[in-house]
Task: inverse folding
C-alpha cells in the first residue's frame, strides 16, 4: 500500500479526496433533517474537496508530470480496480473540481428543508454523484469505468427525482434512467469489442489490441451512441430537456456542467486513446451529428418558454459544438495533420471547460430566481434586475459568455473552433476539403442563434417590467449563493482574459493524445493559433480597449451633459401608458425562429378569435424526434409485451406446469 | 453381473416402496392420509439411509438418518397435522386432472426417469445405484402432484415429497451430500413449512378458503 502511495502521490491524494467526498456524503446521514449541519458544514467541506481535486488536476497538467497508475486492492477477485492519472484525466478533474466547488458553495445556501428529499440524503446523493464522476475520469479499466458510470447515473437519477411526489418529475426521472441504461449498454458493448479478443478489461490492453477495421468501426459507433446518449446528441437527447428542468437547480448545473462532460471525456478517451487512427468517415459522422445537434438544440432553445428547458436545449447546442470539434479532430488525425488536430482538440477542451463554467452559472442563477419568485416560466418573470442585482449581474456575465461575445470565455473557444474549420482546406481529400468548411457556416449560425437565445433569456427574466405583481417582493440571493455564482463568473472572466494560458494547458492534453500542440504565437499577450496574417486575439487587449472606450464615454458624458441627465421612462411608442402585458413575451421573442424553422417543430396552437370574450392563447411545441422515433418504439414494445403477457394467465397450476415442462425439457436435453 | 447382496436387495425393495408411496400420494385425496403417507415415506427413507450407512460404513450417514427421522417423521408431520386441525382441512377437491389420467401420466414419467438415469447409473459406484431411476421418478411424481392439486396445503405436502426424492437421489448416487449442505437443506425445509403455515392463514383470511384458484383474481388486467 505504501509503495504505490510513494510512487504515485497525486493519484493517492486524489483517491483520498474522492473518499473524502464519500465521507462527507455519509456524514449527511448523521443528521438527515439538519439543514444547518448539511448546508453550513458539509457542502462547504465538499466545495473545499472540489478545490483539492482541481489542484491535483493542475499538478497533472504540469509539464514535468508523468502518468501515474495504481492498482487498487478493491473490486472482484482477479479483477482489481485500475486507476490512472494522465493529462486528459487531469484536465477533466480540473473542470470537475472548479465548477463543482462553485456549485457546492451555492448549494450550501440553496437547499432548504421541506423540499422533497431530506437534506442529509440529498447531501449523500450529491457527493456520491461528484465522487463517481471523478472515478469515471480516473478509471483505467472497463470494469471500474462501468461501475463508476452506473453509480453516476443512479445517484443523478435520485437527485433528479428529489421532488418525487410530482408525477411529471417521476416520469422525467424514468425517461432519464431508461436512456442512461441504453447509453450504458452501448458503452459496455463498445468495451466488449475493444478488448479485441484478449478478454483483458484494462485500458492498457485495449490500447495494445489491434482491431480489424470493421470491428474498430463498430466500436466507434457504439461509443458514439453510448456516450452520445449521455451527452445529449440528437436524436438521443430526449431525456435531457425533461431531466434538467425536473432536477433542483444545483443538480441541473451539475448534470449540464459536469456530467455531460464525462461523456465527452469518454468519447475522447475511446476515440483518441483506446482506438488507433480510424478512417475519415468516423470524423465526418461525428462532425455531421455535432452540427445537426448544435443547430437543433439552439433552434429549440429559441422557442422555449420555461427558463430551465431553454438552458437544457442550449446545453444540447453546446454539446453539438463540442461534438463537431471532435469530428474535426478525428478527420485531421486520419490525414495526420497533427497540429490542426491539436488545435481542434484544444478548442474542444476549452469549450467543454467554458461550458461547465457558464452553464452551471446560468442554471444556478435560475435556481436563485426560482427560490425568490417561485416561478420558472418566462411568461411570469421580468424586471428582476432591480430586485436581484447580484444575480442579474452574474447572470449577465454568464449570458454574454454563452452567447460567445468577447472578451469572455465563450468567445475564445468558439473562435478557436471557427479558426479550425477555416483550416480544413488543408485536408488532402477531394471533397472533404470543400465540404467541411461549410460546417463553419453552421457553427456561425448556431453561435448567432445562441446569442439570440440569450438575449431572450436575459431580457425576459431580468429586464423590462414585472409581469406578475408578486415579483416586487423577490429577494436577492444569499451570501453563499453569491459566492458560488461569483466564483463561476470569475472563471468566465479569467479564461476570457487569458486564453493563451488555456491554450497552453490544453496543449499538454493534445500532446499526449494527438502528439502535437497548437501553436499560440510568439507574443505572450496575443493568441495566434494559425498565422499572424490570418487571425490573432488578445483577451487583455480587448479588455483594455473596452475599458478605455467605456471610460472615455463616461468622462465625455460627465463633461458635456453634467446636470442635464434625468431618469425617465423609455420611449413608449406614443401610447399614453405602458403595462407589463405590453412587453415582448417569451413566445413573441421566439416567433420569428418558429416561423423560419417551422417544419422542424410539431406545433399545436390555439389562437383566440377576435370575438372571444375571454381570449386565451396556447401553444405547444413538440419534438418531432419524440413523435417519429420514440413513440413507435414505445408502441411496439407495448404490443410485444401484451403478447407476452398471455403467458401470465394468473392460474397457479399453469405457472407450475411451466416449471414442470421446463424441467422435463432440460432433462430431455441432458438425455 | 454378480448377484446383488442381501442388503442391496432390501434397499431395492425399499426404493420400490418409496415409488409405491409416491403413486399413493398422487391418488389420495384426504389430507390426513396424505400426511400419514408422508410419514411412511420418511420412515422408508430413514431405513434405507441407515442400511446404506451400515453397508458402506459411512458414519456421517447415521447423522443424516437421525436428522431425517427427527425432521421428516417427527417435526414436520406434527406441524402439518396441527395446521390441519387449526385450519379445519378435511380433504382436497377433485384434482385438476382425474386420477386415472394422473396415474397414466405418472407411469410415463417413471419410464422417462428410468431412461434418464441409465447413463448416470453406469458411472455411479455405490451399492444401490440402480435405484437412481426410482429417486428421479419420485421427484417427478411429486412435481406432478403439486401441479395437479388445487389446495395450498396439499401442494406443501407435494413439496416435502419432492425434497424426500432429492434426498434419496443424493444418498443413492453419492452416499449423501456433505453434512453442511444437508443441514442447510433441512433448515430450509423447516423454515419453508413455517412460512407456508403463515401464508395459509393469510390466504384463508383473504379468501375464506385455501383453494388456490381464488388467487387468480389477484392478477391485474
Result:
Amino acid at each position: 500500500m505504501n509503495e504505490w502511495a510513494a510512487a504515485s502521490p497525486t493519484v493517492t491524494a486524489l483517491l483520498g479526496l474522492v473518499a473524502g467526498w464519500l465521507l462527507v456524503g455519509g456524514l449527511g446521514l448523521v443528521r438527515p433533517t439538519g439543514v444547518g449541519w448539511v448546508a453550513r458544514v458539509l457542502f462547504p467541506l465538499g466545495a473545499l474537496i472540489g478545490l483539492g481535486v482541481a489542484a491535483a488536476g493542475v499538478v497533472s497538467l504540469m509539464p514535468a508530470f508523468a502518468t501515474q497508475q495504481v492498482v487498487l486492492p478493491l473490486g472482484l477477485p482477479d479483477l482489481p480496480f485500475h486507476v490512472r492519472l494522465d493529462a486528459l484525466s487531469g484536465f477533466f478533474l480540473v473542470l470537475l473540481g472548479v465548477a463543482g466547488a462553485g456549485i457546492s458553495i451555492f448549494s450550501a445556501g440553496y437547499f432548504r428543508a421541506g423540499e422533497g428529499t431530506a437534506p442529509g440524503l440529498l447531501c449523500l446523493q450529491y457527493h456520491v454523484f461528484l465522487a463517481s464522476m471523478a472515478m469515471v475520469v480516473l478509471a483505467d479499466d472497463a470494469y471500474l469505468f462501468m461501475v463508476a458510470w452506473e453509480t453516476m447515473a443512479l445517484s443523478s437519477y435520485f437527485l433528479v427525482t428529489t421532488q418525487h411526489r410530482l408525477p411529471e418529475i417521476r416520469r422525467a426521472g424514468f425517461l432519464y434512467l431508461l436512456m442512461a441504461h441504453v447509453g450504458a449498454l452501448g458503452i459496455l458493448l463498445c468495451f466488449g469489442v475493444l478488448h479485441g479478443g484478449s478478454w483483458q478489461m484494462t485500458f492498457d490492453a485495449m490500447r495494445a489490441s489491434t482491431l480489424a477495421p470493421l470491428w474498430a468501426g463498430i466500436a466507434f459507433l457504439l461509443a458514439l451512441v453510448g456516450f452520445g446518449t449521455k451527452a445529449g446528441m440528437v436524436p438521443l437527447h430526449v431525456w435531457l430537456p425533461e431531466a434538467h428542468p425536473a432536477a433542483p437547480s444545483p443538480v441541473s448545473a451539475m448534470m449540464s456542467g459536469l456530467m455531460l462532460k464525462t461523456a465527452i471525456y469518454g468519447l475522447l478517451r475511446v476515440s483518441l486513446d483506446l482506438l488507433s487512427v480510424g478512417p475519415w468517415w468516423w470524423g465526418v459522422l461525428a462532425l455531421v451529428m455535432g452540427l445537426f445537434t448544435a443547430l437543433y438544440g439552439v433552434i429549440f432553445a429559441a422557442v422555449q418558454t420555461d427558463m430551465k428547458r431553454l438552458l437544457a436545449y442550449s446545453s444540447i447546442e453546446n454539446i453539438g459544438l463540442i461534438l463537431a470539434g471532435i469530428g474535426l479532430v478525428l478527420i485531421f488525425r486520419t490525414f495526420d495533420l497533427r497540429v490542426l488536430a491539436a488545435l481542434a482538440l484544444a478548442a474542444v477542451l476549452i469549450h467543454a471547460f467554458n461550458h461547465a463554467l457558464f452553464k452551471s452559472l446560468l442554471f444556478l442563477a435560475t435556481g436563485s430566481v426560482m427560490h425568490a419568485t417561485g416561478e420558472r416560466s418566462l411568461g411570469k418573470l421580468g424586471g428582476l434586475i432591480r430586485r436581484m442585482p447580484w444575480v442579474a449581474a452574474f447572470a449577465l456575465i454568464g449570458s454574454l459568455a454563452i452567447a460567445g461575445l468577447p472578451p469572455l470565455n465563450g468567445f475564445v473557444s468558439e473562435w478557436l473552433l471557427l479558426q479550425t474549420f477555416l483550416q480544413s482546406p488543408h485536408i488532402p481529400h477531394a471533397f472533404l476539403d470543400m465540404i467541411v468548411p461549410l460546417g463553419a457556416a453552421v457553427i456561425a449560425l448556431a453561435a448567432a442563434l445562441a446569442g439570440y437565445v440569450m438575449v431572450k433569456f436575459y431580457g425576459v427574466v431580468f429586464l423590462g417590467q414585472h409581469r406578475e405583481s408578486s415579483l416586487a417582493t423577490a429577494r436577492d440571493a444569499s451570501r453563499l449563493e453569491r459566492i458560488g455564482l461569483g466564483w463561476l463568473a470569475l472563471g468566465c472572466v479569467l479564461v476570457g482574459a487569458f486564453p493563451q494560458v488555456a491554450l497552453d494547458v490544453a496543449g499538454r492534453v493534445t500532446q499526449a493524445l494527438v502528439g502535437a500542440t497548437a501553436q499560440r504565437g510568439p507574443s505572450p499577450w496575443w493568441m495566434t493559433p494559425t498565422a499572424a496574417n490570418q487571425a490573432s486575439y488578445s483577451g487583455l487587449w480587448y479588455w483594455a480597449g473596452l475599458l478605455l472606450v467605456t471610460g472615455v464615454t463616461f468622462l465625455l458624458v460627465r463633461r458635456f451633459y453634467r446636470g442635464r441627465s434625468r431618469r425617465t421612462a423609455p420611449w413608449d411608442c406614443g401610447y399614453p401608458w405602458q403595462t407589463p402585458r405590453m412587453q415582448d413575451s417569451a413566445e413573441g421573442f421566439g416567433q420569428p425562429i418558429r416561423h423560419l424553422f417551422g417544419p422542424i417543430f410539431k406545433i399545436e396552437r390555439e389562437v383566440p378569435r377576435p370575438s372571444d370574450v375571454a381570449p386565451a392563447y396556447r401553444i405547444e411545441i413538440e419534438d418531432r424526434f419524440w413523435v417519429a422515433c420514440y413513440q413507435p418504439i414505445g408502441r411496439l414494445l407495448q404490443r410485444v409485451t401484451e403478447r407476452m403477457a398471455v403467458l401470465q394467465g394468473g392460474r397457479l397450476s399453469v405457472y407450475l406446469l411451466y416449471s414442470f415442462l421446463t424441467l422435463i425439457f432440460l432433462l430431455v436435453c441432458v438425455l | 453381473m454378480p448377484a446383488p447382496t442381501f442388503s442391496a436387495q432390501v434397499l431395492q425393495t425399499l426404493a420400490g416402496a418409496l415409488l409405491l408411496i409416491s403413486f399413493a400420494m398422487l391418488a389420495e385425496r384426504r389430507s390426513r392420509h396424505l400426511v400419514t403417507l408422508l410419514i411412511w415415506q420418511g420412515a422408508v427413507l430413514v431405513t434405507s439411509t441407515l442400511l446404506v450407512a451400515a453397508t458402506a460404513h459411512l458414519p456421517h450417514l447415521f447423522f443424516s438418518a437421525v436428522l431425517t427421522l427427527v425432521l421428516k417423521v417427527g417435526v414436520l408431520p406434527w406441524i402439518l397435522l396441527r395446521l390441519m386441525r387449526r385450519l379445519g382441512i378435511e380433504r382436497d377437491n377433485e384434482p385438476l386432472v382425474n386420477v386415472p389420467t394422473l396415474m397414466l401420466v405418472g407411469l410415463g414419467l417413471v419410464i422417462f426417469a428410468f431412461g434418464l438415469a441409465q447413463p448416470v447409473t453406469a458411472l455411479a459406484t455405490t451399492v444401490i445405484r440402480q435405484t437412481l431411476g426410482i429417486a428421479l421418478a419420485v421427484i417427478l411424481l411429486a412435481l406432478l402432484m403439486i401441479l395437479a392439486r388445487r389446495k395450498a396445503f396439499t401442494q406443501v405436502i407435494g413439496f416435502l415429497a419432492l425434497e424426500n426424492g432429492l434426498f434419496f437421489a443424493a444418498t443413492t448416487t453419492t452416499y449423501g451430500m456433505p453434512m453442511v449442505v444437508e443441514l442447510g437443506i433441512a433448515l430450509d425445509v423447516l423454515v419453508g413449512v413455517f412460512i407456508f403455515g403463515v401464508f395459509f392463514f393469510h390466504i384463508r383470511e383473504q379468501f375464506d378458503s385455501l383453494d388456490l384458484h381464488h388467487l387468480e383474481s389477484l392478477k391485474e388486467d
